[in-house]
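Ops channel
N.P.: pipeline sanity check, posting one input/output pair.
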């Protein structure tokens, strides 16, 4: 799914769609070192992070980008694919564990023994459009997949939020993506997501039809009751 999204977005701005697709296949290979610490692999078996200090959790999550690049290097995969694995998170903040640590410190009345930098990926930031696009597509796919019945407005909002947060966090400063290209990427991702998740997307017309159907069924039941 990340491959489909990133390839379409890359081609919309003249970047290398094939590199994005192949890079997507390998971008999270580092997670195979500690698979159960990543939510997509837990399958209801419990979350080991519940028993860990947030700083330890963050270090495990952060390591997957570097581990992936090292594994790809050991198996002699091309540098552009290794770069995507290493750079797709840039220097973004692991917000969940950062705020978890902050909350625990407040509850225990202790001073913070860390900085925001301790909860950020080490980077480097995306050095190519392809690495940046795979990073965006990765976040979008995970966010949309977490919704049971996404609406078109929700999808559009999620994509805009992800891109804006990365833009405001200066994650695109080193990869030459322009604001116009980011707009094209957002629109392409929206259309691709709608196509991929079509059966799960709830359209306004669907809601209205459902209401009309329910009203008709209630009226029919009432008429049957009166007949009896």
């Amino acid at each position: 799914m990340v491959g489909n999204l990133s390839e379409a977005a890359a081609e919309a701005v003249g970047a290398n769609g094939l590199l994005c697709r192949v890079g997507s296949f390998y971008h999270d290979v580092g997670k195979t070192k500690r698979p159960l610490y990543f939510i997509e692999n837990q399958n209801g078996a419990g979350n080991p992070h519940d028993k860990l200090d947030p700083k330890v959790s963050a270090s495990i999550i952060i390591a997957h980008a570097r581990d992936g690049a090292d594994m790809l290097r050991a198996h002699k995969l091309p540098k552009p694919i290794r770069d995507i694995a290493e750079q797709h998170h840039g220097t973004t903040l692991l917000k969940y564990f950062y705020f978890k640590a902050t909350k625990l410190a407040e509850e225990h009345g202790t001073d913070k023994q860390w900085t925001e930098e301790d909860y950020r990926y080490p980077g480097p930031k995306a050095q190519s459009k392809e690495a940046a696009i795979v990073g965006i597509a990765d976040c979008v796919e995970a966010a949309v997949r977490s919704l049971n019945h996404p609406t078109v407005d929700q999808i559009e909002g999620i994509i805009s939020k992800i891109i804006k947060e990365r833009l405001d966090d200066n994650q695109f400063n080193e990869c030459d993506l322009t604001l116009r290209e980011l707009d094209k990427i957002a629109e392409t991702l929206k259309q691709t997501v709608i196509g991929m998740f079509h059966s799960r997307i709830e359209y306004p017309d669907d809601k209205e039809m459902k209401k009309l159907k329910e009203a008709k069924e209630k009226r029919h039941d009432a008429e049957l009751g009166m007949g009896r």
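N.P.: looks fine end to end. The mean pLDDT is 90.
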